[in-house]
Amino acid sequence: MSWPTVKSTWLDKVIFLGTGTSSQVPAIHCVTGSQSHCITCTDAMKPGSKNRRFCTSLLAIGSEPGRPDTSSTILIDCGKSFYESALRFFPPNGLRKIDAVLLTHPHADAILGLDDLRSWTMKGCIQDYVDIYLTQECMQTVAQMFPYLVDTSRATGGGDVGALRWHLIDANTPFQAGPHQVHVQPLYVEHGFVQNGRMPFGCLGFRIDSMSYISDCHYIPSETLDKVVGSDVFILDGLKMKRHTSHFSIPQAIACVLDVSIRHAQRNLPPPSLALITDITHGIEHHDFSAQLQSHMKGLTAWLYEQNMDVKSASSEWWKTIWDELENEEHERLQLSVSCTTDKAHPLVPSMHLAYDGAQIYMSKNRL
């Protein structure tokens, strides 16, 4: 199923370098036993499988309207599978330079590939340096893990390390990224807990032009969702069907997308054209679950039409009348309390899909 074209002013396209968890897919324990009963991991071993998932990461590529000389490639997260995903997806897409790296948080799946950026900067082979944007909290972990990247005088061995320029950002303050000063809005969320569960672990998503991207979260503050309003594509964490301490479940992700659509309607704005789920475990098989997700969204849409409900008459959390998210999580299946379907679209129910590695979102420029 094709995805709708997304409206934008700066973005030209988005490429998913990875859509999996820190463990990636396939899981090693599923493919090394005498018999594998995991259909996701079995399929993920096949070339070109949409179930093969590197650590969650994304490229946002864009330029100022009519100014191809201002083209920028922005990488969000540089985790432990980054180099392999770059080898797989950079050459066929004609990509080479990285103009900025945005880090969401200091976990292995977001930062362990930073050392590999040396391949872009050694002896200026591709570029002289790479700009990295991160919070002070993230910087502290990076400095502990990669002291030689922060202070190159601490390099050992041959001394060939990446030439990285570090830029500290505030979780609530917009900033300009890269040589062409691309506007970026941080999106503060919570991603698990620290101090034995006493304190939420802060994490960032990012809004770039018409795209909002939140890959790791168990809770999104209302004020952050307000910053998502105006986006035409919303990419969101959806680990699996069951609830998790540091990630959205897929039912939570769906409910969040519907919430954002209501927020758009309340401001007389069109809701997102497209919503995508990322950071997915091997518990979700791409093809089977995609069909289940489409059936679910069609059911929600059909019910709105049966109730003659439009963007003005719909109440907040209207979907709870026919959908029990917690029950779906418990039974690990999307199901409404009523049976209905339609092929029509409704402005309160965006086109929603599972993202997959190598997938691209195409933009219609100058349309916002």
Automatic annotation (TrEMBL):
SUPFAM superfamilies: Metallo-hydrolase/oxidoreductase. This is Metallo-beta-lactamase domain-containing protein. InterPro entries: Metallo-B-lactamas, RibonucZ/Hydroxyglut_hydro. Pfam families: Lactamase_B_2. It comes from Malassezia arunalokei. Residues 73-264 form the Metallo-beta-lactamase domain. Transmembrane segments: none annotated. Signal peptide: none annotated.
